[in-house]
Amino acid sequence: MALQFNDASAKEAIESGKVVVIDFWATWCGPCIAMGPVVDELAEKYGEQAVIGKLNIDEESEIVSEYRVRSIPTILFFKNGEVVDRSVGKVKYSELESKLLPLLG
Question: Among 20, 46, 57, 105, which has the highest number of CB atoms less than 10 A from its own CB?
Answer without folding.
Answer: 20
